[in-house]
Specification:
Layout lengths: L1 E4 L2 E5 L5 H8 L2 H4 L12 H13 L5 E5 L4 E9 L7 E8 L8 H17 L3 E4 L6 H9 L3 E12 L2 E11 L4
Parallel strand pairs: 5-6
Antiparallel strand pairs: 1-2, 2-3, 3-4, 4-5, 6-8, 7-8
Bound molecules: coenzyme A.
Length: 173
């Protein structure tokens, strides 16, 4: 899979992405807005473990965001089970040197379209922590609708946080 976004790509992960993944993912400013399953500190072995899982995924729904040289971020979606099988949660992060350029907003739009088109999903949602203003803006700019506030739904680094529920539906629903 490869989607071109201006001078960037959303593409399949490759084993050769391990050094870039480790270099950029090892950043507490990224980890603070993600689940605890995202390691912090992020070690080379964590990058290897992630790549091993993603390279085995079939169908694969986790992708690298990349420029011509290297991977600079991650974006993916995971469909639910049972009655939630047509609904997927989206997640993403971008390497800090590339923040503020609108790259992730375009990637979210492109991957959402791809997921609706190729996976027949009805709904894609994201649940940023309520204090994650950048991610909230990304979702708004990418055409997601704020559906609600999940009060005290998270404990991150000892802080009780609300989450915001954003979703986009397949055209026609
Ligand atoms: C969330 C993340 C991907 C955003 O990346 P980015 O490169 O800043 O995104 P964009 O440039 O596409 O858009 C960011 C928007 O947020 C705005 N923004 C960022 N920080 C802000 C702040 N503190 N206050 C107000 N607006 C802010 C920017 O101005 C921009 O909006 P604009 O285009 O209207 O000016 C990046 O910060 C990241 O990787 N964070 C850590 C992981 C994460 O939070 N993942 C999402 C979990 S739900």
């Amino acid at each position: 899979m490869q989607l071109k976004i201006d001078n960037y790509y959303v593409r399949n992960w490759q084993k050769s992405d391990i050094p870039a993944l480790f270099k950029y993912a090892d950043n507490p400013k990224i980890a603070v807005n993600l689940r605890d399953a995202f390691p912090s500190p992020y070690k080379p072995a964590d990058a290897e473990k992630f790549l091993a899982i993603v390279l085995e995924m079939n169908p694969c729904t986790y992708f690298a965001i990349a420029n011509h040289e290297e991977a600079i971020g991650s974006i993916g979606f995971m469909a639910g089970k049972d009655v939630h099988r047509f609904s997927a949660e989206m997640g993403y992060w971008l390497a800090e040197p590339f923040w503020g350029r609108g790259i992730i907003t375009k990637a979210v739009r492109a991957v959402t379209d791809y997921a609706f088109r190729e996976f027949g999903l009805n709904r894609i949602y994201a649940e940023p922590f309520a204090d994650n203003i950048a991610s909230v803006r990304v979702l708004e700019k990418a055409g997601f609708t704020l559906e609600g506030r999940l009060r005290a739904n998270v404990v991150k680094r000892g802080k009780v946080l609300d989450q915001l529920l954003f979703a986009k539906l397949r055209e026609g629903l």
